[in-house]
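From the methods appendix. Each design record in this collection lists the tokenized structure first, followed by the designed amino acid sequence. Records were kept in a plain field format so they could be parsed without special tools. The example shown here is representative of the layout used throughout.

RECORD:
FOLD TOKENS (257 positions):
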């Protein structure tokens, strides 16, 4: 086969790959074909490897897109969390949650503990794991969510914005009950929580025991209703009082001496 014919074939394959939106096939078919010849692999093995590379690249790009769309303040995985520095935490339970069963069962997950005990890191880690399972995820703080809902209400767009929050397969609400919330704002937050109850999963982090939530949500009846929705079938993980972040800092300083 002449050099000119081979060049035409390669150009045609690249065009076919472009038309079919197979970017990895178009970019790697030649290199992988040469490797298949060296390794004496047959045509089917070559095709399997080439299509496998396309599937893997699409998966990785899909995960990266979902992580971007989730709006994490910082990407933190469970693999990055040093459970050895926090032996009181139920590492096995958290890793089991990362497998995603709670998502299909629409079960809440609540991380409760003092500042610096790893709540946000573990919540983000579970959310990253959900992104890897191709779930639509969104991260927010309670204050950010309430501000968005309030603004939408003022613009007569509350239904549209509320429906968008209902479509996520997982939402993370960080810093719940960190600051006092006016009753009108709490009602908007309750709409999201009650609307998702038993229909889609939510992860919440809070530094306040449930018995003290009425100090942040002055309407006791609304507060009770919110807790009823959040704690029903929930996985409640207490992260304790001792700062994991502070211990990690001390460990780093000790190792640098």
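DESIGN:
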């Amino acid at each position: 086969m002449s050099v000119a014919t081979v060049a035409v074939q390669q150009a045609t394959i690249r065009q076919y790959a472009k038309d079919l939106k197979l970017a990895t096939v178009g970019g790697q078919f030649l290199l992988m074909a040469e490797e298949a010849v060296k390794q004496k692999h047959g045509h089917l093995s070559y095709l399997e490897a080439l299509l496998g590379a396309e599937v893997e690249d699409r998966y990785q790009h899909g995960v990266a897109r979902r992580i971007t769309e989730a709006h994490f303040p910082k990407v933190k995985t469970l693999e990055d969390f040093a459970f050895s520095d926090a032996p009181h935490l139920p590492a096995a339970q958290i890793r089991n949650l990362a497998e995603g069963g709670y998502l299909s069962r629409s079960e809440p997950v609540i991380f409760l503990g003092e500042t610096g005990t790893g709540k946000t890191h573990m919540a983000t880690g579970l959310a990253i794991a959900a992104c890897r399972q191709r779930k639509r995820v969104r991260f927010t703080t309670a204050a950010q969510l309430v501000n968005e809902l309030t603004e939408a209400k003022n613009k007569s767009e509350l239904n549209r914005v509320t429906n968008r929050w209902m479509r996520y397969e997982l939402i993370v609400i960080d810093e719940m009950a960190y600051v006092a919330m006016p009753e009108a704002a709490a009602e908007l937050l309750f709409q999201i929580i009650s609307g998702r109850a038993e229909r889609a999963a939510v992860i919440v982090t809070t530094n306040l025991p449930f018995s003290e939530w009425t100090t942040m949500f002055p309407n006791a009846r609304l507060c009770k209703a919110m807790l009823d929705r959040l704690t029903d079938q929930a996985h409640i993980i207490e992260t304790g009082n001792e700062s994991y972040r502070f211990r990690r800092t001390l460990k780093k300083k000790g190792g640098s001496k």
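APPENDIX NOTE: The first helix runs from residue 3 to 19.
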